[in-house]
Structure formats: structure tokens, C-alpha cells
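Quick question about two entries, pasted in order.
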Amino acid sequence: MPMPEIALPIGLASQWLGSLLVLFDYYAGIGALILIGFTLVASVIFLRWWKIKDNPFRRVHMVVGIFTNFAVIAVLLLIVEMNGLVR
């Protein structure tokens, strides 16, 4: 991972901020968008299934992780739709 000393605080801050906004229903739509962005970036960085050539079980595991993250993004989009971006 390039520049982990910068990526880690940004990732943690976006997870905490987005989660707290959704949890307390205070600008939950914006919090859900923050979490969608984090989930997309984390999926691209950590679940690179297209680079796995030698181990088919590991590749399937990565693809299952991608589809799980798609499900999480679908729920977050539902939160955006229900709450809107601004109260």
C-alpha cells in the first residue's frame, strides 16, 4: 500500500465519521456516502481478485468479498435514498 502513514488515518477517520453520522441519524445520507467511498476504495486496494492466478480458492474468496461489499454498498445506497443528503 502506498503511503500507509497517510492512508490509515484517512481510512479510520472516514469509517468513524461515516458510521457515527449513520448511527445517530445526523446527516445519515452524507455518512452513508462517506462509507460507500471507503468501501469502494478498500475493495479496490485489498480485494484484487484479478491478480490471483495460482490459487483458485483464494480467488473465489476474493470474489465473494467483492460481492459482500456490493451488498453493503446497496444497503448504504438505501440509507442515502431514505434520508437524502441534507436534512
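Here is the second entry:
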Amino acid sequence: MEGVGKDFLEKLQAVARETGTPVLVIDLEQVRRNYRRFQQLLPRVQIYYAVKANPDPEVVRTLYQLGASFDVASLPEFHLVRENIKHLLPAQQQEFIWDKIIYAHPVKMVNTLHELEPYKPLVVYDNYDELDKIKKHCPSAGLILRLEVPNEGSVVNLSSKFGASYEDAVAMVVRAVEMGFTVEGLSFHVGSQCTNLDNYRRALSLSSRVFQEVSRRGIRIGNSRTGRRIMDIGGGFPAEEYAPGSISFEHLAESLKGMMKELFPEETEFIAEPGRFLVANAGTLVVSVIGRAFRHGKVSYYIDDGLYGTFSGQVFDHQIYTLRAFRPGPVEKCTVFGPTCDGLDTVSPHMNDAAYPAARLPRMEPGELLYAMNMGAYTLASASRFNGFPLARVAYLNR
């Protein structure tokens, strides 16, 4: 078990014996370490945790206790964050929502806007129809304009779905101001699991040009409370465990600091929306072998979680999760299936993607445990109950 401490493996097995499997074990101290690392390396940037990466209430509570802000994209995510401030006085709750929540989805349902209206939220837009909708249903909102930026080389490309083009951006800011809104800043997203520094360089340069052109039109973009313009550099910060050797966060942060200093005045308020960076390496899944079969001289194992469950990240997040045994022994090439009746539910090799290797495990017996690390982001969040199988339990270390 190279690189994994014996104590940690013993804790995983103890949790699995106590709760049963499948179980996603979240190390909350690792979440804290990730948060503090981001803070230390990008001290000018306020962290807005992207709740969609892992909406587990304990994860959200842990980050709230650290002083994090939050990026939400639905009413359930908004109310999940609100649970942590219900003990505050109404005025304090409102202050928190003004200062520490951004509704970052650029296209919102009408009922969502109606429900958000009393909170005077900060919301994102990227098209004229959305402006009209916000004006009608949530006129108290402060606005952030999302820009279309390059997503080259990122694992998940978002630029095809969201973002105003440079050609439209200035006019959209002008239109919003004419409608009586306060445009507080700009935002972009370079794509999920981004290891291409040039995406950030081009996105920040484009944002700077939009700020300058808006200013030339005599319009001031700025936070309604502080007066400082907001530059939201989005998410996409890579979990290094998913791309070892590609780029360290230290190098990325140092480069970003240089770009921000070069392109933006000192009074700019920078925010970011990290998701996987904060939680990916904090989650370890433990599963049981529920069956074994030998076909054409090869061994196949069936486990109690799969692509419709916590391994859904292999489909939607395009990540490879490596199953390991808790005991040593000579390994052999094998196939691992999830528990459902669907042939697609093949954990390794993933039948629809040649990038996923076959598993290499010692000869396993039904009832034995396996584990997979770095499964804290976009895994349980996208899991379903297909075929009637329940979602993995969640357990915590270092609460």
C-alpha cells in the first residue's frame, strides 16, 4: 500500500465494519488543510466553495466554520448553506448572504428568482433574456457578468454552454446599468480540472479589457457595499492527484498572483470558486466484493458500488479511480463490475472509454474489502439510485 499509511487503512476498515459498505469516508481535516493551502498561496482571493462538487452537509459546515463563502447553483444548495446561519439574527443572516453567497448559475428558473428576491442576492448573468428575467422577478439582485473564455485542455469544457462573448460583454454591462442594476463585477470559468495556465492568462486579459472599455463608456463596475470591482476567477483549480506531474498549485498560484498584479488595480476584489481542489482528496470509498466469476480464463469481481453510484465521477467527471486491496499479494489483471444489471456498469476497465485500465488486484474472495482514494468530488454528488441500489453511506474522520 505504497504512499498510504497503515493507520489510515486501519481506520477505513474499522469504519466499513461499523457502517457497512459502500461507504465514502470523508477526512474533514484534509478539507481544512486544502482550504488553508489555498488561502496561504492566494491570500488576495476570497474562497467561495462550489457546493456542487460535494454538497455533504458536514463538508459545508466545516468550510463555513473556516470562514468560507459559497458558490451555489440551485435553491437546495442555497438553503443547504443557509442552514449554517439560522442561529444568526435576521440582519446578520442578510449580511452573510450579501457578502458570502454568489448564485453562480447564469440561467435561473423564475421560481428561483422569486424566492431569492427578499435576500437581495448576488447573481450571475450572461445574456439579455436573463437580464429581463432578473429585472422582472428579482430586481434587488446585484449582478456579475460571466464572460466566455478559452477552456482548452480542461477536462470538462464549460465555454460552449455559458459566457458572454467579448463582443457582447460591454453592451450587456451598459444594458444592465440602464435597467437600474448595479453590476458588481465580472466572472469566468476556465474549465474543470484546468492545468493550462494560458486559459487563465487569456481570461484575465480579456476581463481587464472589458473593465477598461466599460470605464471608457463612463460606467463604473463595483461592489455595492465596498465600491471595489469584483473579479471572480471561477473554479477549475486542479486536484493534483488527478494529473500528477502536470502543474503544482504552488506554481499555478504564483503565476496567477503575477497576472492579477499586472492586469488589475490594487483595489480589485478577487474571488474564486474552487470545488474539487478542496474536497477531491478528502474522500475515500470503501466497497465490498459481492461476487466473483471466471470467464475465458479471466477473473471478474462484482462490487456493491458502481457507475450509477459513487463511481459516477468516471462518467460525468472523466476521472479514473483506482481500486486497491487492503492486503498485499501478487496481483492479476481483472475486470470489476458494479452491482446493477446494466453492462455499462463496468468500473474497470470502463467499457466506453479506452483510457480506463483494467484493475490489478490480488485474488479476492467474496466479502473482502477494496478501497479507492481521491473520490471526494463529483462522485456521490452525481450518484443515483438506479436499479434500486442505495447511495453509499457517508462517514467522517476528524470531525
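Reply: The longest strand covers residues 283-295. The CA atoms of residues 120 and 141 lie 5 Å apart. Hope that helps.
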